[in-house]
Specification:
75% of the residues lie in helices and 0% in strands. By secondary structure, it is an all-alpha fold.
């Protein structure tokens, strides 16, 4: 890295991580080298294209990391003034509105809706709209958004859990079983998934399956006492 032979440095790190995947020295060195590479790339971007939306987005993300929401909002809005159809920016704005205290839910909803007009396949925007609806007890809206999110991204684990939870809350227990089964396959160590699936089984008369899931829920909770509380 000192000689600016970045390709050699990265290849060496990849080889070390392959051969010694859990070695503390390797992980320590990797952290510093990749951090230095990121810093150099950011400096090069600021130097070579200071007025690009990519450079401005890096600035906005830096303000986000500092929880300086107003400055981050201003930077993202500046980007949209020049490139109103740039994907991802409305989504970032929506997340910021939800991060503010108190959260500006309606503004967030509007931004996620705008994101979906630009990027119809944005599973994260669908998920966030589902979360807003779920927290408001609007189960049908939540179910629709979570269902679309899970179809747009079949690996979106949280979408399956949220969909199952919303279906359970809406009393649609039989419909909740499949998404919750998908979730516990992906995250067998999460007690929340087993609890929700046990609820769906119990309310559809499948007592043995419900008891099995409750046993798995207790086992997962014992293995991971720091896990988030089981959602109701």
């Amino acid at each position: 890295m000192s000689l600016d032979q970045t390709q050699t440095a990265v290849e060496a790190l990849l080889a070390l991580n392959r051969d010694f995947p859990h070695d503390p020295d390797v992980l320590y060195s990797s952290t510093h080298v990749y951090s230095e590479l990121a810093s150099r790339a950011a400096q090069e971007l600021a130097s070579s294209a200071p007025h690009s939306h990519q450079a401005e987005q890096l600035d906005a993300e830096a303000f986000e990391s500092q929880q300086n929401w107003d400055m981050a909002l201003a930077e993202y809005k500046k980007i949209l003034e020049r490139e109103p159809n740039l994907a991802g920016i409305h989504y970032r704005l929506g997340r910021i509105f939800l991060s503010k205290s108190p959260a500006e839910t309606e503004n967030a909803k509007a931004e996620f809706d705008e994101e979906l007009k630009i990027d119809h396949d944005n599973a994260s925007a669908e998920f966030m709209l589902g979360e807003i609806a779920r927290q408001a007890g609007q189960w049908d809206d939540a179910i629709g958004h979570f269902s679309r999110a899970s179809k747009l991204d079949e690996g979106f684990q949280e979408a399956y859990l949220a969909l199952g939870m919303s279906l359970n809350s809406a009393g649609k227990f039989s419909d909740a079983i499949v998404p919750l089964q998908n979730y516990v396959k992906m995250q067998p160590g999460d007690p929340a998934g087993h609890y929700q699936l046990a609820t769906a089984y119990a309310r559809t008369g499948r007592k043995p399956e419900a008891e099995r899931e409750m046993a798995l829920q207790r086992e997962a909770s014992a293995k991971n006492p720091q896990a988030a509380p089981v959602p109701k």
